[in-house]
Design goal:
single chain; two-stranded antiparallel ribbon
């Protein structure tokens, strides 16, 4: 039985995107919340908690975008021109974050400005990522396998909803991470925000989920018509269960569980996204098979990916294991 290489590559890219959302999501979330923390000790703890891993987390963004370019060049050639302003703003936001992260330690005289740059860059990156997702879900105008829309087609109420929702969700991950990794005043401040953020994230997920089926009849059919509803019905039920467990963990003052249940909510949202989009890489226009690179190219890249991705997973896991303890204002201990 021959390998379905486009389907395999779709799973690889989906894995890379989810890994990025999970790993870079919480450090973007820390940036989103950063200005709420007191100067010096609390902000230093928050920054130190991600110092060993933040740049490695962005490896998965490179794999996701690079994999899309190499494995599905037609989709890449459609999606990126349709969202160029968002992509440019996201990359500038990530640059601001990276520069601010390094210079706030090396230029203490202007630390307040670097703190603002770190927060603004984090919000910009998260907002544009969410809006890009919304633009993809609402549909991209395609003619002859090329983008046929305008410069601002991506700017709609729905994309603003998805952008704001992702900012809230990332903030939830960031607060959960800080509860796990910090102590004292920084942990207490993070714990104060998590109840509201948890509720806001669930409401945002409900709002996006309620709006999505009205974008396209195919979305409605996959979620609500028989027999598809047999597959989709467990997803909202599991989201409700994860939300219940999240709030229970908060009431019990658990350090680790809130972050893990927040990750579960993100995973279920990602599964819901996959249900809505499959088998399209550009919804209702281009399937994963239509957009695929030649079989020989995908097979060649798959050999390298099978070798490289496990290495990335291992060194990432090792980094998190080494820095598995609590962090203070002067680093891990």
């Amino acid at each position: 039985m021959p390998l379905d290489l486009p389907l395999i590559w779709a799973f690889i890219i989906a894995f890379a995107v989810f890994a990025y959302v999970v790993m870079d999501g919480f450090d973007l979330g820390i940036g989103i919340l950063f200005l709420l923390f007191k100067v010096e000790d609390e902000r230093d703890q928050a920054m130190n908690s991600i110092a060993p891993v933040w740049d490695g987390n962005e490896t998965w963004l490179v794999l996701g975008a690079g994999g899309l370019f190499a494995a599905f060049p037609t989709a890449y050639a459609i999606i990126f021109p349709a969202t160029y302003p968002l992509m440019i703003a996201m990359l500038l936001g990530l640059v601001f974050r990276g520069v601010a992260f390094e210079f706030r330690w090396r230029d203490p005289a202007h630390r307040q400005y670097w703190d603002i740059a770190f927060a603004v860059g984090s919000v910009a990156a998260a907002l544009t990522q969410g809006m890009t997702l919304g633009a993809l879900l609402q549909g991209i105008r395609v003619e002859d396998n090329a983008y046929a829309g305008g410069w601002l087609d991506w700017l709609t109420p729905f994309t603003l909803l998805t952008g704001i929702s992702l900012v809230i969700g990332y903030a939830l991950l960031g607060a959960g991470w800080l509860i796990w990794k910090t102590e004292g005043a920084a942990q207490a401040r993070a714990r104060k925000t998590t109840m509201k953020l948890g509720l806001a994230t669930l409401l945002a997920l409900i709002a996006v989920s309620a709006a999505t089926p009205f974008l396209n009849y195919e979305y409605w059919r996959r979620w609500f018509e028989y027999p598809g509803i047999l597959l989709t019905a467990p997803v909202p039920l599991l989201v409700a269960l994860a939300g219940f467990l999240y709030f229970r963990a908060l009431r019990r003052n658990d350090d680790r569980a809130p972050f893990l249940f927040a990750l579960a909510i993100f995973l279920l949202g990602f599964i819901g996204l996959g249900i809505s989009m499959y088998p399209y890489v550009v919804p209702e226009s281009v399937t994963i098979w239509d957009a695929a690179a030649p079989e020989s190219s995908q097979l060649f890249m798959l050999v390298g990916t099978v070798i490289i991705v496990p290495i990335i997973v291992v060194y990432t896991g090792w980094a998190y294991w080494v820095f598995r303890g609590k962090v203070g204002s002067h680093g891990y201990h």
